[in-house]
Write a structure and sequence with these properties.
By secondary structure, this protein is mostly helical. It is 65% helix and 5% strand. It has 18 helices and 4 strands. Strands 2-1-3-4 form a 4-stranded parallel β-sheet, sandwiched between helices. Strand 3, helix 17 and strand 4 form a beta-alpha-beta unit. The longest helix has 44 residues. It is globular and about 75 Å long. It starts with a helix and ends with a helix.
Length: 478
């Protein structure tokens, strides 16, 4: 192997390692986004500076961010390592870091939750097959209780204070960037990272905990807006809408709706991959938007997830709509102008073949970011009829984005055809055992088959417009 090839291999390995770590961090937060939104809404509505100040209802704010949210993260992190037992011991150990600190322990929960579950998993493996018959429940319960109690004590005296020191250091660093007027420069890193599918890791794993700590002190945080601003992506899509050609131009209006209103930012990534120079438009829009947020003192009370303009309105504190909209509009205008200039001076043709190639490249990158390889379409399973189909399950990596859209589309088609079948979406790791038909992207089908081998598995390329939907409706309707 040449030195150049060795260097490229090392870079690829480093990127995969970062992506895996990012997926793990975001995986602890993403399933709990509903709880974060609930806390954000209660905060926005009832704190003294909220839309409807209420001293009694505002008492929910403190306990939710101090106890509920970190415990949920700790439980989820533990569950990812060692199932329900890991989740329980992760929650117990998280209580130690919560009590051992004076700030919300999101970072501490991300550390101690998985660590506690890993320790319990190793203990369970060490005694596997050695437990006397009839003593399984007794030993399992007491082992998790004793280990969990000891870890909670250790976290209280050790991890909590250390994480508090780290969190305060990071918060001080971010505050220094704000005071020095350098915060917009973070978008030089954030925007390219989004296209590499590190957006969830950055937003929920790194920026989120810092922003939440800041929000508890000031009632809002601009950090929530660094990655989630829909303006840069909107500007690029509008440029394709007006100046693109072929399939890129025709698909741009639909992508605008999904991105700006639905909050699914991944929809614009293929357009950048089709013309990589457009990453400069995203960076310019991000920097300009953040500069405007800083200039007008904008901020949100909680994570706007997904990054929809509706979520931005919901998470904006009282009196903050104009500063928020200013940053989004400026980011859109700047990214649009830069993208339009780059497209006009580019020799690349944005035709249907280019877009299809870019979408394929995006799927390969997303598969790599999820720790899988782009596989060949899975072998067809025995087709099922309406007599033995009660539940159809869409599955994706997180169970919240693409699978939710696919399930909604198929559910409407089933209802219109008069077919009484349950259609749901879930994370691939949470596939129910009673699923009759499982629909996944082709890169995840093999994993889904291992989880639910008895189900019929359907592999698709695009959750938004797969021809398999109509074929399935036709088959089950006969």
């Amino acid at each position: 192997m040449s030195q150049q090839q060795h260097s490229a291999s090392e870079q690829g390995g480093a990127k995969v390692a970062i992506q895996k770590f990012g997926r793990f961090l975001s995986g602890m937060v993403m399933p709990n986004i509903g709880a974060f939104i609930a806390w954000g809404l209660i905060t926005a509505l009832f704190i003294p500076t909220g839309w409807f100040p209420n001293e009694s209802l505002a008492t929910l704010v403190g306990p939710m961010i101090t106890y509920l949210l970190p415990i949920l993260i700790g439980y989820t992190g533990g569950q990812m390592i060692h199932g329900t037992r890991g989740g329980v011991i992760g929650a117990v150990a998280t209580m130690g870091v919560i009590i051992g600190s004076d700030i919300p322990m999101f970072l501490g929960a991300m550390i101690i939750g998985p660590l506690a579950a890993w320790i319990l998993k190793k203990f369970d493996q060490s005694i596997e097959g050695k437990i006397p018959s009839g003593f399984e429940m007794l030993i399992n319960n007491f082992s998790s209780g004793i280990i969990g109690g000891l870890l909670a004590l250790g976290a209280y005296k050790g991890i909590g204070p250390v994480v508090e020191m780290i969190s305060k250091g990071l918060a001080n660093g971010v505050q220094w960037l704000i005071d020095a007027g350098l915060l917009p420069l973070t978008n030089i890193i954030i925007e390219p990272a989004k296209v590499l599918f590190l957006n969830n890791a950055i937003n929920h794993g790194v920026l989120g905990p810092i922003a939440l700590d800041q929000a508890t002190k000031t009632g809002q945080s601009i950090i929530f807006m660094l990655e989630s601003n829909p303006g840069p992506g909107l500007g690029i899509l509008l440029a394709f809408w007006l100046f693109g050609r072929g399939a890129a131009k025709q698909s741009a209006p639909g992508a605008v709706v999904i991105h700006f209103l639905g909050g699914i930012h991944e929809i614009y990534f293929p357009y950048i991959l089709m013309n990589p120079r457009l990453i400069l438009a995203a960076i310019a829009g991000g920097v300009a938007g953040t500069f405007t947020f800083v200039l007008f003192g904008a901020g949100l009370v909680a994570t706007p997830s997904p990054g929809s303009i509706f979520a931005y309105f919901a998470m904006t504190p009282k009196g903050g709509w104009l500063p928020m909209l200013s940053g989004v509009v400026v980011a859109t205008i700047v990214s649009f102008l830069v993208a339009a200039l780059l497209m006009k001076t580019s020799k690349q043709k944005e035709d249907g073949e280019d877009l299809e190639s870019a979408q394929t490249k995006m799927k390969e990158m997303k598969a790599q970011a999820k720790g899988t390889a782009v596989a060949s379409p899975a072998p067809e399973a025995a087709p099922k009829t309406i007599e033995n189909v009660q539940k159809i399950v869409f599955a994706c990596d997180a169970g919240m984005g693409s699978s939710a859209m696919g399930a909604s589309i198929l559910r409407k088609k089933m209802t219109k055809a008069g077919i009484d079948v349950t259609v749901i979406n879930t994370a691939i790791n949470d596939l129910p055992s009673d699923a009759d038909i499982v629909i996944t992207h082709k890169t995840l089908t093999d994993r889904a088959r291992l989880k639910v081998p008895a189900a019929e598995h359907i592999s698709i390329d695009d959750f938004l417009k797969s021809p398999q939907y109509d074929e399935l409706v036709s088959r089950l309707g006969t």
